[in-house]
Amino acid sequence: MASKLTRSNRAGWTFALPGFALIFAFIVLPFFFAIGLSLTNQRLLSPNPTQFVGLENYRQLLGLAVVTLEPERNDAGEIIRNEAGEIQYPRLRAITRSDDYPQYRGMREWFRWQSGEKIMTVIASDVVFMKALVNTFLFVLVVAPVQGSLALMLALLINHKVRGINLFRTIYFMPVVVSIVVVSLLWRFIYDGQNGLLNSILQALTFGLFQPVDWLGNPSTALPAVMAMSVWQAVGFHMVIWLAGLQTISPTLYEAAAIEGASRWQTFRYVTWPGLRNTAVLVLVVITMQGFALFAQIDVMTNGGPLDSTQTLVFQAVERGYGKQDISGGSTISVILFAIVLAISLIQRWLTRER
Amino acid sequence: MAVNPDNYGLRLFVRYLVLCLIALIFIFPLVFMINSSFKPDSQLLADTSSLRAFLPVGDISLNNYFGAFRRAPVGLFVLNSVLVTGATVLLSLLICSLAAFSFAFLRWKGRDVLLSVVIATLIIPFETIAIPLLLLVSKLPWIGLDGLHWGWLNSYRVQIIPWIADGLTIFLFVQYFKALPGELIEASRVEGASWWQVYYRVVMPLSGPVLATAAILKFLIMYNQYLWPLIVVQQESYRPVMVGLGYFFQLNVAWGEVMAYLTLITVPVLTFYLLLQRAFIASIASTGVKG
Predict the structure, then answer these.
(1) Is residue A23 part of a domain?
(2) Which of A63, A199, B90, B105 could be cross-linked to A212 through a Cys-Cys bond (beta carbons 3.0 to 4.6 Å apart)?
(3) pLDDT higher for A143 or B145?
(4) Has residue A61 got a pLDDT over 60?
(5) Residue that finishes a domain, picked among A107, A124, A141
(6) Does any CB of chain B come closer than 8 Å to the CB of residue A198?
(7) What is the C-alpha separation between B223 and B45, in angstroms, rounded?
């Protein structure tokens, strides 16, 4: 009887169709487009017909090789040194522009290190993309644990029923509702090298000993500065998710722990933390996803600079796909980004599997 | 072991001190923004070296606000954002709840497959489809009052339609609907109500909490949109507030005006949040209670 009442092909399709059609057209379809476009040379506006280029776009992004530079030797096989006694090496350009090594053609140096008398050089087809890839991973690897654990600490601090605690929860969550664009602009003021609030605060705290730093203008501090701001902005979001997790833990478990005479740390270790396992995975995955999507902060604060030290995957995808109208190049980066996100989701599924 | 009252008082004091210090960290950029919006540029920049940065002192006026309105069509940007956000939130509530109603209560061929496709889209971040979506919308047809057009760039529809339906909103509705008593639906059907009547007479009146959650999440996403309007809207007449910010960085930057503009576009959201903070926090928390 019940089945007859709820079975309705026509009504079912009619109700679900608008929503499903929109999702299909604007999420599913573009997703498959991305894969298809990454195999072509499609541009946003182009007089030339689109051509299938196979994996060429991927090769141009991911091409990577290690080249060993041997010291220059004279006819007798001795190492040539200049007046200062430095060993002379052939120029890298002699290799990347030589017809003898067609596989290295057009590649540029990414970084190098000395290994005995030799110099090992890592060359890449697209050095900027490689930097973006590394920066994005660095961002996620630092922000995920830092933001996740700070959010948990805040949640534990807020989870006490003392007078006015709601006010504090409201304040800690506040940056989440403010646009990341607004937040990024405000933090440009905080990080400014001349009038920056951060420099002023640090100088006041050290009685003027601290030397002002141009946080966003210095390649070694720019990415950490963006990380710190991102943590500040979103930590309230994850605090709320941890709080929701904390509230699912039965109070009787805490009572039992108190009767057993458990210390605070033991209570956390054996009652709280096991009850938060699924929340922990969720928080990490959400932060990771948000981290890989890093764009607005970069666009507003640094534009990828200085010296490409804050390039990210999404920033590169947009710069190519929109800025240079190179839709296929932007799509290729998108597909690579998606493959990374998918791999992480699969790891999540594996971690939360029923045992 | 009796609790020493002094000790307890001290611990409470330390707890509040820590809570307040952390609160300062979260609040100081916003206090700086609001106070700076009333100061002339020279004072604004000089004040950053002292605590005056966080106080409404010195030469206080509304000049920056007038300046911001002179520099950019602020009213238009706000109107565009309100229009796009409002339309998307309303359409999203309707279309996503209808789809979820069908997924949760009706039984039809293909339902499970379609629902799993919807759920699968949850792992596709928007940033990975932005570029192909840009190509797609640049080629879509549209029938307007003046006939057939090709291409959706520079319009309201390009900012609204792709954002109406999403996996998370449908998923939140499905979860909520499945927790409603099924007998209620069956009883209404026995009494001869059509599916549409069941939807809007029985289910919708019971769905206040999930509607609030879905509306707040969509509101935050839409009002704070940046990447998408940045790449699909070049014409000033369709620009939302966040992209309109670009205006203040052409030629010489007047920081006081920037602060005034930031305050103008942020304070309404903050007010909204402070009034409805329980609902805001509950809606974020509910995204965490998956499966």
Answers:
(1) no
(2) A199
(3) A143
(4) yes
(5) A124
(6) no
(7) 29
Distance CA A160, CA A173 (A): 17
CATH code at position A154: 1.10.3720.10
Phi-psi region of A77 (alpha: psi -120 to 50; beta: other; left: phi over 0): left
Measure in Å the smallest separation between the Cα of A307 and chain B Cα atoms: 22
- Which residues in chain B are closer than 8 Å to A178, comparing Cβ atoms? 30, 266, 269-270
For residue A55, what is the DSSP state?
A: T
Q: Does A114 touch chain B (CB under 8 A)?
A: no
CATH code, residues B81-244: 1.10.3720.10
Structural domain includes residue A19 = no
Query: Tell me: the pLDDT tens digits for B176-208?
Result: 999 898 888 888 888 888 889 999 899 999 999
CB-CB under 8 Å, B95 with A22:
yes
Domain that includes residue A182, residue range: 128-324
- In a domain? residue A50: no
Query: In this complex, is the C-beta atom of A196 within 8 Å of any C-beta atom belonging to chain B?
Result: yes
Per the structure block, which two tokens stand in for A148? Answer: 């996740």
Q: Do B124 and A31 touch (CB under 8 A)?
A: yes
Nearest to B285 among A175, A185, A240 (CB): A240
Residues A311 and A194 in one domain: yes
Higher pLDDT, B151 or A298: A298
User: What is the distance between the alpha carbons of residues A169 and A171, in angstroms, rounded to a whole number?
Assistant: 5
Q: Which of the residues A10, A45, A46, A178 would you substitute to probe the B interface, choosing the one with the greatest number of B C-beta atoms within 10 Å?
A: A178
CB pairs under 8 A between A and B: 287
Q: Tell me if A36 is assigned to some domain.
A: no
Neighbouring CB atoms inside 10 A of A97's CB total 13
List all residues of chain A from 308 to 347 with a beta carbon under 8 Å from chain B. 314, 317-318, 320-322, 327, 330-331, 334-335, 337-338, 341-342, 345
**Beta strand pairing status for A108-115 and B147-150?**
unpaired
Contacts with A146 (C-beta within 8 Å, 6 or more apart), sequence order? A227, A231
Do residues A157 and A257 both lie within one domain? yes
ipTM for the predicted complex comes to: 0.89
A21 vs B170: CA distance, rounded Å: 13
